[in-house]
Amino acid sequence: MAEDESPEEEAEEEHAPPAAYIAKVLPDLFEHWKERNEWIAEMRSHANVTNKIEVPADTRFTVKPIHMGTLRAARNERLARFLQAPKYRVIAPGPSDPAQSYASKLERATNGLIAELRRNNDDFGRTVGDVLTVEGGAMLWEANSQAAWPRLTVGVDGYDDIIRDMPDGDPDDEKSQQKALQAKVDAREKYKRDLGNSQLGKLFTHSHVPYECLYPFPDEVVPSEFIHIEFRSVRKVLDNNLFSDEAKGALRRAMDASDGFISFKQVVPIIRYCNCETYAYYLIPEIMSPQKDMSLIKQLTNKYSQGAPQGVELLYSYEHDAGVPLYTQYIGSEGGWNSGDNEDLKGTLRSLSELNTARDDLASQEYTN
Predict the structure, then answer these.
(1) Would you state the pLDDT for residue 170?
(2) 223 contacts 325 by C-beta, under 8 angstroms
């Protein structure tokens, strides 16, 4: 270990895969999911009414293109059938009144939490929209109890702010110890109640993940490893105190190579890696800008489908210890994209694409005439 490197920093790097491994596996994942992403781009163009309309080239007049928005209208109609958030039911652990009461309280608490999460961010609706459009969707869930109840954060002494100064009870009296323990439990619960339900929205962070940006490792029936590509503002990366100085130094060198000026539109690709125990962020030190006819993810996959990116750096990692990946996938019809080379699924999308295209072409010709 280097002299200027703390034991915590060394431990943090140990549980994250090496940056070189992440760089090497990226082209294989891009190539494996290439056809899926092409279909996603095709269906998004129809849903966003930006699909190309074919017009006869031998006419002496200009055909007026018009989009009917057929696929978008059908998607919105189907989306309206879904609740804004699912309602959860809790099965009582037994027929007794206490068991029924426990289940009812847990059910109300769970649905109340979900309602708070949905108040200001309709990630669930966006994910369902992806499933209806591209036959797949994904969300990222992360626990964040420190933001919801900051005084319950355990310090280096093993105590939180609520119980740090509370007595432990007489070490020779079991009843005294139990009474002291119950007092600590009650104090924590009172702290939570006093803050109210508004804090529940901070308890979990949740975000919609564009399906073309999520890359499950395909060698497992139930994926336990994911790579998620995110594009973040260069300024936001440099301002993040959690990210390593070494990685931010590589980004600054990339800035110097492009005359040092960074606009608000310029972003940097971040590779998020997740398995059942670890979550990690990696940086590709390359500054990118949006293009009119090509998405950022398309630019990146085109460039690195055949060769690994250079200079990938670990930004930050932590152990989430959830026992499962933090990504939830929602599978569409015909078994979804994770069921291998799914010709049935592609046939469904091909039919929708051709019907929407034909309707736009005919409408454009009729509108012109």
Answers:
(1) 85
(2) yes
